[in-house]
Design a protein that fits this description.
heterodimer; A: about 120 residues; globular; B: seven-stranded mixed sheet; about 0% helix
Chain lengths: ~120, ~110
């Protein structure tokens, strides 16, 4: 059974930093691109960032470019999102999502349950 | 960046109805389009990938069509479990994007 388990969400002040993790099981992690997608309260889905299976190719939405860094540890089957210079508009549930292939751009066939990031003073 | 526009934003229907949701891209995305269903408090669920391919385990009453810039999701005969919000997603470019969502309500 495929499982994606996010953690690391928290209440943080504007300008602060946070690192999200997503532990994957039930898949050959090195075979798939992975992504982060967020959803602000009561709003739609927003793609945030993606990384290829090799961990080398990374992509970001303009709204987070220069502030967020995606990475993966293939030896630990874990995806990360390092977030810095957080702003109120970053408040959202953050989902990790598995792509259907090795590249980052893909349909997402498995999603985690989400972790809530709240940016507020 | 490619903008994805869904219509309608809200759709009222009844059990047994056939409904169609449209998704338009601001430029051609070939057939690199997916459809998701999301229920409140839950993660999205993949229904359709590559515009018309049914994800494993998804009921056959769901179907997708289209290419280029215009796509549709059709639900053949609505079941009570289908009332949810639906999103399209383009993955033609590495800067992927979602439509704003269509809420299907009774």
């Amino acid at each position: 059974e495929v499982q994606l388990l996010e953690s690391g969400g928290d209440l943080v002040q504007p300008g602060g930093s946070l690192r999200l993790s997503c532990a994957a099981s039930g898949i050959i992690f090195t075979n798939y691109g992975m992504n982060w997608v967020r959803q602000a309260p009561g709003k739609g889905l927003e793609w945030v960032s993606g990384v290829g299976a090799d961990g080398v190719t990374t992509y970001y939405a303009d709204s987070v470019k220069g502030r967020f860094t995606i990475s993966r540890d293939n030896s630990q089957n874990t995806l990360y999102l390092q977030m810095s210079s957080l702003i109120v508009d970053d408040t959202a549930v953050y989902y990790c999502a598995k792509g259907r292939g090795k590249v980052a751009k893909a349909a997402f066939d498995y999603w985690g349950q989400g972790t809530l990031v709240t940016v507020s003073s | 960046d490619i903008q994805m526009t869904q219509s309608p934003s809200t759709l009222s229907a009844s059990v047994g109805d056939r409904v169609t949701i449209t998704c338009r891209a601001s430029q051609s995305i070939n057939n690199w389009l997916a459809w998701y269903q999301q229920k409140p408090g839950r993660a999205p669920k993949l229904l359709i990938y590559k515009a018309s391919n049914l994800e494993s385990g998804v009921p056959s009453r769901f179907s997708g069509s289209g290419s280029g810039t215009e796509f549709t999701l059709t639900i053949g005969s609505l079941q009570p479990d289908d009332f949810a919000t639906y999103y399209c997603q383009q993955y033609n470019t590495f800067s992927q994007s979602f439509g704003q969502g269509t809420t299907l309500e009774i």
